[in-house]
Amino acid sequence: MVNVEVCIAADELTTMQRDVKAAHAGGAATIELCSRMDVGGMTPEPAFIKAAKEAFPRPGAMVMVRPRPGGFEYSLDDLLTMQRQIHMAANAGADGVVLGVLTADHSLAQEPLTELVQLARSLGLRISMHRAFDDAHDPAQALEAVIDLGFDRILTAGTPYQQDLPAVNGLPQLHALMRQADGRIEIVIGGGVNPENAGIILADAPPGKLAVHAFSGVQVDGVVSVERVRALHTVANHLHP
């Protein structure tokens, strides 16, 4: 089975609740809550997390933990902010957090990530690596590091982060990652995913733990559509029941 994740903009409470309810009704297994999607996503306020959990009773509310826009190399102050944000997300009812930290040479920052993962685990949270993974210089090495660190999931388009290319352009890399992962971690395919291209993206996917992640691809006029979420779920699971 391929799970569907819907990315939800958490900047205006009423519209966020509407979109979360639509994702739930359409069969999304998880949602990713992000404020400031105009800068690639930031950590939402606790009121948004609490309201999202009311509208999404399934145990799948994942919360972005990102202290500032820009790259993924963080200062000590940034890392302390991330720790506070993880505590906040857990206290607000989140089921998981989405995060990533890189070094100056675009490798995974092992020590900070170890501390963040241990903290999230101690609070009972699931953990996703966001698309900082796609900014790592060696994807195969980064995959092993993410698994060793104890992450549950990786969000990737299979394309370099800075190039901003969709997942349909990253199929060779995505398939290589799936084969390498061999079911040890869930690969969440994101980047321009929608009901129309999901069949192409998943058609020759190797077996393993798979999910698809969509933002604008399940919207109609900027609003999450129950029908488009359901259509994405149907296409994905027709190919990988």
At the third CATH level, what is the topology name? TIM Barrel
Order of helices and strands: EHEHEHEHEHEHEHEEEH
Would you identify the CATH H-level superfamily?
Answer: Copper homeostasis (CutC) domain
Poorly predicted regions are none
CATH class: Alpha Beta
Number of strands: 10
Question: How many helical stretches?
Answer: 8
User: In angstroms, what is the radius of gyration?
Assistant: 16 Å
Q: Give the overall form.
A: globular
What is the strand arrangement across the widest sheet? 1-2-3-4-5-6-7-8
Secondary structure: elements and pairs:
Layout: E1 2-9, H1 13-25, E2 30-34, H2 46-55, E3 61-64, H3 76-91, E4 96-99, H4 110-122, E5 126-129, H5 139-149, E6 153-156, H6 171-181, E7 186-190, H7 198-202, E8 210-214, E9 219-220, E10 223-224, H8 226-239
Parallel strand pairs: 1-2, 1-8, 2-3, 3-4, 4-5, 5-6, 6-7, 7-8
Antiparallel strand pairs: 9-10
Helix pairs in contact: 1-2, 3-4
Description:
With 241 residues, this protein is of the alpha/beta class. It has a single domain (2-239), classed as Copper homeostasis (CutC) domain (TIM Barrel), CATH 3.20.20. Helices cover 39% and strands 18% of the residues. The chain contains 8 helices and 10 strands. The chain has an 8-stranded parallel barrel with strand order 1-2-3-4-5-6-7-8, surrounded by 6 helices. It has a two-stranded antiparallel ribbon with strand order 9-10. β6 (153-156), α6 and β7 form a beta-alpha-beta unit. α1 (13-25) packs parallel to α2. The longest helix is centred in the middle third of the chain and has 16 residues, at 76-91. The mean pLDDT is 95.
